[in-house]
């Protein structure tokens, strides 16, 4: 609950990271495409390029939006709990609300 603002900032940073990753990949691909290599060296370099640049970038790119959604959901849950104030109690690694409506709203936020 106390880390909502840093989570908001991290969420914004993830958006910047996604754009930077895409730009870096485009620049690397352009440089790779313009590179003049001997015929015997090209397949080896292409294989290394794929392993070092393409595969990691392609693996990371879809994770960023998922991380953004997750951090946004954490912020929303924290805000909801903070809005409930003293009505919320934490018991045995769980959370309790005085009304079923509050519990239902909380469960909807966390996807239950």
From TrEMBL:
Which UniProt key words apply to this protein? Lipoprotein
The name this protein goes by in its record: Lipoprotein
Q: Which organism is it from?
A: Salmonella enterica I
Report the superkingdom from the record.
Bacteria
Matching InterPro entries, A to Z?
DUF3053
């Amino acid at each position: 609950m106390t880390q909502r603002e840093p989570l908001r900032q991290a969420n914004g940073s993830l958006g910047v990271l996604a754009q930077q990753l895409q730009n870096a990949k485009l620049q690397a691909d352009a440089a790779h495409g313009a590179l003049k290599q001997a015929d015997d060296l090209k397949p080896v370099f292409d294989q290394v390029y794929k392993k070092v640049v393409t595969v990691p970038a392609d693996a990371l790119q879809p994770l960023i939006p998922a991380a953004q959604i997750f951090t946004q959901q954490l912020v929303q849950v924290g805000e909801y709990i903070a809005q409930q104030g003293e009505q919320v109690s934490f018991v045995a690694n769980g959370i309790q609300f005085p009304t079923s409506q509050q519990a239902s709203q909380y469960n909807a936020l966390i996807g239950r």
